[in-house]
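Note to self: the last two entries modelled the partners one at a time, which told us nothing about the interface. This time every component goes in together.
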Amino acid sequence: MRTEVELISTGSELLSGRTLNRHAQYLGEELARIGLRLTRDTTLGDDRTAIADAVRSSLERVDVVFVTGGLGPTVDDVTRDSLADVLNREVVTDEESLRRLHEKYASFDRTVTEGAARQALIVQGARALPNSVGVSPGELIEIDGRMIFLLPGPPRELKAVFQEHVVPCLVEYFGSRTLPEEKVFQVCGMGESDIISLLEINDFPPEEIDIAYCAAPGRVEVRLSAPHEREDELESAASALRSLLGHHVFTEDRRAMEEVVGGMLRERGVKLATAESCTGGLVGERITAVAGSSDYYLGGIISYANKVKVAELGVDWATLASDGAVSEAVARQMAEGVRESLGADYSIAVTGIAGPAGGTEEKPVGLVYIAVADKHRTIIKKKRFPGDREWIRLWTCQFALDLLRRRLIGAV
Amino acid sequence: MRTEVELISTGSELLSGRTLNRHAQYLGEELARIGLRLTRDTTLGDDRTAIADAVRSSLERVDVVFVTGGLGPTVDDVTRDSLADVLNREVVTDEESLRRLHEKYASFDRTVTEGAARQALIVQGARALPNSVGVSPGELIEIDGRMIFLLPGPPRELKAVFQEHVVPCLVEYFGSRTLPEEKVFQVCGMGESDIISLLEINDFPPEEIDIAYCAAPGRVEVRLSAPHEREDELESAASALRSLLGHHVFTEDRRAMEEVVGGMLRERGVKLATAESCTGGLVGERITAVAGSSDYYLGGIISYANKVKVAELGVDWATLASDGAVSEAVARQMAEGVRESLGADYSIAVTGIAGPAGGTEEKPVGLVYIAVADKHRTIIKKKRFPGDREWIRLWTCQFALDLLRRRLIGAV
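The predicted structure of the combined assembly is written out below.
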């Protein structure tokens, strides 16, 4: 049986902008865990013919098909009718599902109307998959050794039916499959195309290893993978990649930069403070998005106005006048000022021009100074980031955390 | 020309669980604004043959097809090759795109490698659609009166190319279609089901008016719409809704809360300061996400640790000991303290338990105190927000800004 799986997501709200379709992400990840690969998601409106056609097409390509949504009580819930069309079967009431429906409605003092009773309908010959958190059951239809799963559209219900009924069923069918081995490297400080060039020059990766990239502001994820039986080759490719990328790799898992840096601070038992200008609180927000960050984060000063830089961080008016707020000298004073006033071991400071206004020829939009101070010294980096205001702030935050990381491991 | 549109989203990360595909939601909503209807999204991996097949199928059903993703510099970026396959054309370098590429790279002191130069490739005969926020241009391919748009995968770039190039092109092609008239109300302080109940009791909306809802943390968007010729009925329904919802409506357009509040502060010529505990900088970050916020935002204190609340905001150790950090008294002292120390007209303070740890029976996870101070008085609200750490922080931020809004309009 083929291990590729297709998904058909139904619901006009998924195509009108009303609702974000999260099913492909959820099912893609969960199927990968059991060695199956989601290769297609077709999202359609509540259109009986279109759904039936899509199911027919999927069955030509794969042996396992998921259809989500359209199992509710209203007239636009057409999924089971579509499947009945495909299979030339009837739609019938599942007595056990109807009994559960009455039970559930009774517990909320509601009676089952004729419309509501439609939720106990299933395709003839299907197996009902009880829905522990909602009303409409899922269904499993087996034909010629192939499997079609109908799952309720509300994400909580889909997840419940999937975990309680679908996973056991797939695991039983496919047995313990051999998953591809994977190594993940997250990189900050090199762009995607820089990494590609560097690897090309070094004839990396070896032929038997697959490589994939995923870029976000200030972060590139590099994934190496190989079949299970090539575990040793993968291991040695990973160690080659590790030497090529060096300190630019901030973690070999999927953690965010703030989790990595937070973990280092906790391990060392040291405290951090922040002083932010152009990011306006974003660095603090990212650090505190991690549960338990109070173990190492004291707090910070958002010094958006110059008078706050002076009053709260001890920045000199004279320096502001001579060098400007976006300067190496001010970044230094901000970092040293916040470290001292909050009594921290380490501090991060950022000052820059996020735009769209405020840029000059000498100090263009995207120019940012990032400083990290500790008791020994203050390190300052001048950067010019691309993109709009949002992007510049994201890059700044990521590089600021990365500079602290590099300081903590002694790389700067 | 048919007004149905199909989307083909490409990228293996969209099916592996790594990335959430938001394109269908965005494009569905934006296309509806110009009278077009998204009827299908097919999400595929970076598979040249599968993409080519999907484009062929779409062209059998509709006249406008969007293909997103796979326009970058790496070998798994196969979209333009797929299109070249479908159309039996070559892939060629677009000189203008290459020139822009060199210009953009030069501005960041980087040179265009051979890999990077692939981003200037387009399908022969296509029109390049310049990407103002990224590197890879979009493309428009016209064949037999039908249009295929290739759009970059990163959402920011997709949005820029779509708004700057695709919308004008579609509007020109389809002419000024009669779009439904629409009125938007954004509400904070009432949940979606509260609003629905209130409107039901009041027999709203009248039959000829359509109503739709969209909920996010601390915000419900209510949209009324009607055909163009019912503009008067829509107008009177809008004014009925306005009276029903009162001060809970924070804006009648699509602006975010921080833009609405920022606009009010600027209009009044007053300055704001913030003191944040559980949100860790999120309130400052949201305020400063708006360009020009330095006109009214001075800055703030992120007082994550109690010693920072005392040293920087003048909170009493005694109050912290008697009432705890998450209390009405501490919220008051934080708001008044930051207002005074930063010399602001208005201040916002938040202190709460974002979880997952730190909750008690008396002070559960989700408990938050929000304070707004001005020279006359300090208003404090106690709230209990649902959801996880991220949601609690989002709700808190939204309600904190809303409390300031209500204070500014004299509603509290």
